[in-house]
Amino acid sequence: MDDVDAQSMELMVQAGLPQMMARVLAALFTTDSGSLTSAELVRRLHVSPASISKAIGYLETQALIRRERDPHSRAERYVIDDDVAFQSIMAGARAQTRIAEACKIAARKLGPTTPAGARLENTSEFLLHVIDDLVRSAKHWHKVYPAHPV
Asked: In this predicted structure, what is the pLDDT of residue 77?
């Protein structure tokens, strides 16, 4: 792992990403192609295939990477898209929206006059407003800084 990979990985770990997932993501970010196979990741990071598999699964659930078939072999390539930040923000917003909706349903069941019901309703409204602002901002800046400038 070179200095750029190490610095990128450390920042991702500080931001809350588990270490192996951060190492894989940093490796993908710092390759010109933005993609590597499992075997290439194993060699580059000096870890087991199982570690790579677990990291890939996690990163996929976070919408940070995707799989595609390598056109030259049967291997899968793990790809980080140029608009990974936008995709990740949108995936996070969808997850937070589900949480806000669950809070709203629970608030209705408990009733708005109970402390728990009021707390859940307030949490739901707060999340929905923040998510709306975040999504509008992400869409705006995604247009300003497209993944592939025109």
From this structure: 93
Residue 148 pLDDT > 80, yes or no? no
**Close Cβ partners of 81 (under 8 Å, ≥ 6 residues apart):** 34, 66, 87, 147
Token duo for residue 46: 């000096």
The count of other CB atoms within 10 Å of the CB of residue 86 is 18
Tens of pLDDT, residues 3-60: 666 777 788 888 888 899 999 999 998 899 999 999 999 999 999 999 999 999 999 9
Q: CA-CA distances (angstroms) from residue 124 to 27, 67, 89, 106, 127? A: 37, 34, 19, 10, 5
Residues found in the chain: 150
> Could you tell me the CA-to-CA distances from 81 to 3, 21, 63, 117 in Å, in that order?
22, 16, 10, 41
pLDDT for res 137: 97
CATH of the domain spanning 3-79, picked from 3.30.260.10, 3.40.50.300, 1.10.10.10, 3.30.450.40: 1.10.10.10
CA distances from 118 to 24, 95, 115, 128 (A): 42, 22, 5, 15
The structure's pTM equals 0.75
